Amino acid sequence: MRRAQYNQNQEDLEENFIKMKLNLNEEINRIKSLMFEQVEDYVLDVQGNINSPNGLNIIMKTIEGEKIGHTNVIGFKHAVDLSRDFKTFLENKEHPFLEDNCVYQFGTEIDQKFRRNGYATILRNKCHDLSKENNFKYATGILRKDNTANQNLMKKMGYNIFDSSDEKDFVVLEL
Ligand SMILES: CC(C)(COP(=O)(O)OP(=O)(O)OC[C@H]1O[C@@H](n2cnc3c(N)ncnc32)[C@H](O)[C@@H]1OP(=O)(O)O)[C@@H](O)C(=O)NCCC(=O)NCCS
């Protein structure tokens, strides 16, 4: 009788222990999901293709659907057709940029009221990620020397000046 009671107690203990373990696991998973929960306050709409004649266009919106800004990235081959500046810079200097290793990023704009929140940085990083996924090695851009915001942004992102004209800089980032 006492043995039966002892066995029952053991079983109860084991059952309780398993329940505690399950609860603990659940709690750990809940904390983990809270820690890694995405707290993004924007959505990205990626349209097109880097290797197409019009390139890839990314539109950033708030969760409510208001437009925050946009940017574009295009492969070397079509960038030459698209941008006279791009073509001219590359005609003027020997360079390592080729169809299969280089993209051109252009037309980044963030709506006035959303500026200085890191959104342009996010958009450009997204372009870098997509370019890397497509095995491109260099991201390039052209910016006016007097565009302080864009100059600072490009510097902060690690771009280096590859060539300059009187008004503009051709910048490059190794991805
Ligand atoms: C340039 C532009 C895209 C920057 O967008 P943004 O979302 O405000 O940029 P971020 O918040 O990601 O800024 C990143 C860094 O860029 C620099 N920067 C951005 N705006 C700046 C400004 N007005 N003055 C000085 N530096 C600035 C800063 O170094 C900033 O880092 P910090 O905020 O930690 O100091 C935005 O000002 C814009 O749309 N301008 C008009 C269009 C344009 O000139 N586009 C570029 C040519 S294609």
Structure description:
This protein has 175 residues and is of the alpha+beta class. It has 2 domains: 1-37; 42-174, Aminopeptidase (3-Layer(aba) Sandwich). The chain has helices at 2-35, 76-82, 84-92, 119-133, 148-156; strands spanning 42-48, 56-62, 67-75, 102-110, 138-144, 160-164, 168-174. Strands 1-2-3-4-5-7-6 form a 7-stranded mixed β-sheet, with helices on both faces. The longest helix is centred in the N-terminal third of the chain and has 34 residues, at 2-35. It is elongated, with a radius of gyration of 26 Å. It starts with a helix and ends with a strand. 23% of the residues are buried. The model has no long low-confidence stretch (mean pLDDT 93). The structure holds coenzyme A.
How would you describe this structure in keywords?
alpha+beta, Aminopeptidase, 42% helix, 2 domains, 5 helices, binds coenzyme A, 7-stranded mixed β-sheet
Task: Explain the layout of strands and helices.
Elements: H1 2-35, E1 42-48, E2 56-62, E3 67-75, H2 76-82, H3 84-92, E4 102-110, H4 119-133, E5 138-144, H5 148-156, E6 160-164, E7 168-174
Parallel strand pairs: 4-5
Antiparallel strand pairs: 1-2, 2-3, 3-4, 5-7, 6-7
The site of coenzyme A has 19 residues, from strand 4, helix 4 and helix 5.
